[in-house]
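Entry 14. Ran structure prediction on the chain below.
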Amino acid sequence: MARQDYELIVIGAGPAGLAAALSAKEHGLSRILVLERDTELGGILNQCIHNGFGLHYFNEELTGPEYAGRFIDQLDGSGIEIVCDTMVIRLENSDDWRIVHAMSVEKGYQRLKCRAVILAMGCRERTRFAIQIPGSRPAGIFNAGTAQRYVNIEGKMVGRRVIILGSGDIGLIMARRMTLEGAKVLACVELLPYSGGLNRNIVQCLHDFDIPLYLSHTITNIEGKKRVQRVTVQQVDENRRPIPGTEMYYDVDTVLLSVGLIPENELSSEAGVKIDRRTSGPFVYENLETSEKGIFACGNVLHVHDLVDYVTEESQAAGKAAAAFVLGDAPADSGHVIEIKTEPTVSYTVPQTVRVNEVERSLRIFLRVNKIWEETSYIVFRDGDNVIARFKRDYMAPGEMENANIPRVLLDRVKGNTLRVLIEEA
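Output, structure tokens:
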């Protein structure tokens, strides 16, 4: 058993973890350790060989590996210690120290001591078991991300006649990828009445390849012995129940599931971090600190993002805040604290709690709406009956994350302890 002391340990070396570690270094920390369970840095970006990354942050279009490479290159000479092929199995928290328990083939069990921890473990895909599709259990059923890894990294084709359940971004992108590799993608079916992916991916990955998208539909049966042979697709009603008589049958050898992502927070929960059931990620303050002192969260472990550019900006803020905490500039417990509450038109916000005195110039709040708003509407923040801020939007959809910057001067006008956020039609 080895034991070492660090100022900061970052768990995860995907885009969130790398940006957070580099930011913490820039803001004054020197003893930083990044732990990654995979054998390589970069996280999920390594298998995302399509372009479209970096438009907001770098002002140019990059592939996933290129985007990750920008941050990996910055590690050279930074003094940040990187350890891959290492699994964190437990996280303890006390008043002054955090203890990270990790396992690896090379070093065995380690008990690592640090002043602060940044959670950047990313997310995982929801499985067939989680959504309980009836039918047999043949080969040929893949999560879309698993299929992406097989095709893009390992060079293995997963099927020739494909149907995709769910219209998340990974599923949409794999519809295009499978088509380009010579497969026939027969349809993409979505349980909800709207797509869960970015509109640009619907256009570029489905419309451009004449792949139909069936909204308010789902797979109700899978047939096959050794390999998938046929699936049944049915329309669903407003309660998401299959409508008899709407059956469509597809002869396929492959089913790809793109039915949602779940932030990897088992480690967080065991450490006492309070989890928001709406995001499946931690509750955080304005500086991305969780309910546990000295533990911060960023990226897809906090909430599922649609753009990695936002992951980078958020993670840099987490790195800066963790550095301030270690260097003795932690937020004061006193002062005006505001809890952000969502009305039914908004699914969630991040952050969920704001210590007003800790906001410098403005507070950026991320949120998702729970239906499509095609007409001009407003994101509204209310303190009781008083409107604190309004932000105009011409179009909003659940698949595209929204954000709003509220100036500190407006937060100072909040008299109560609750700020409600809702969507209002123009």
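The domain at 1-124+260-331 is CATH 3.50.50.60 (FAD/NAD(P)-binding domain). Will compare against last week's run tomorrow.
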